[in-house]
Amino acid sequence: MSLSYPCSWQKQLAGCIKDPFELFKLLEIDPNSLSQKSMPSFPLRVPMGFVNRMKKGDRQDPLLRQVLPLDDECVSIPGFSQDPLQEKKFNVLPGLIHKYKNRILLTLTGACAVHCRYCFRRHFPYEGNNAHQHFQTEIIAYLNQHPEIHEIIFSGGDPLIAPDKVLSSWIFELEKIPHIENIRIHSRLPIVLPDRITDALIDVFLCSRLPIVLVIHCNHPQEIDETVGNVLLKLRRAGILVLNQAVLLKKVNDKVETLVELNKKLFQFHVLPYYLHLLDKVQGAHHFEVSEIQAKWLWQGLLAALPGYLVPRLIREEPGAQSKTWLISDV
């Protein structure tokens, strides 16, 4: 069967694979080897374009491992919780999370193009808790009351699932607030659904007085094919700063060689590494955990193999902390 792209990003989104048995058939893996429990609250979801980059016949493919539901997710492990970053405490308005003093997160949508099995918000109560436009007045009022806030982070879900007119509306309202200095957008769509980065979307970014920083999420060099590379170059030509954050994942990217190749490949398309995250301890993701000791060893390997500007900051996020915690103090 040919794994061809539909003609628009919306059609690609609608055509995401949601059945593990169908995914195995497409990858020419025996579907009878699939054993999993039902996970209706966080089912499989992966675009065909991302499936195209998986190796056929390889049950251990690093891209497949990131999206395939496993029985391991149903095991309760001490120290892993549904809200590992305690975001409920900082969810001061529907769709607004204020956990850092000078920046806030807006969860514009709970939807994603891909369900990453290690997602720290896989249990987040999105229903009724997104920054829908009918909450816009309250959110703008809150921001006006907090002049210490300088940066707005569009988050989710994946904020680029939102239509251009919604993104444009938020940007238009935010740029009226004098103390807002820039907007940061965290999105996996440039990697898993690159056709989302249309000329019209780039125009939305460029029409604002506020600088737009796009932080993509790419964990493995195999995720970057020609289509992704062309989109990253398009963003570069438009003058948009693109950074990458990766999550350190067992049996996905927990080798120095893999991380070196990832950061080199990203830089070919003018993307700078930003963060290398330790796994957030969310319930259902313990099988991805890499120890802090091993993470520091891997980071040392990156430092020896790459120029400093291609070495991401090794970090952990801790509930209540005023910033990310760097894990390099004894390196």
Summarize the structure.
The chain has helices spanning 9-14, 20-26, 48-51, 62-67, 136-144, 164-174, 189-192, 199-206, 226-237, 256-268, 292-305, and strands spanning 96-100, 103-107, 151-155, 182-187, 212-217, 241-247, 272-277, 313-316, 325-326. It has 331 residues and is α/β, with parallel strands linked by helices. Mean pLDDT is 92; it is low at 1-6.
Tell me the layout of helices and strands.
Elements lengths: L8 H6 L5 H7 L21 H4 L10 H6 L28 E5 L2 E5 L28 H9 L6 E5 L8 H11 L7 E6 L1 H4 L6 H8 L5 E6 L8 H12 L3 E7 L8 H13 L3 E6 L14 H14 L7 E4 L8 E2 L5
Parallel strand pairs: 2-3, 3-4, 4-5, 5-6, 6-7, 7-8
Antiparallel strand pairs: 1-2, 8-9
Helix pairs in contact: 6-8
Instruction: Determine the structural class based on helices, strands and strand pairing.
Output: alpha/beta
Distance between the termini: 50 Å
Task: Profile the largest sheet.
Answer: 9 strands, mixed
Domain count, please report it: 2
The CATH architecture of the largest domain would be Alpha-Beta Barrel
- Output the CATH homologous superfamily of the largest domain: Aldolase class I
Shape: globular
Q: What's the alpha carbon Rg, rounded to whole Å?
A: 19 Å
Strand numbers in spatial order across the main sheet = 1-2-3-4-5-6-7-8-9
* CATH top level label of the largest domain: Alpha Beta
Runs in which pLDDT lies below 50 for 5 or more consecutive residues are 1-6
β-strand amount: 5-15%
CATH topology title of the largest domain:
TIM Barrel
Order of helices and strands: HHHHEEHEHEHHEHEHEHEE
Q: Indicate the mean pLDDT.
A: 92
By DSSP (H or I, 4+ residues per run), the number of helices equals 11
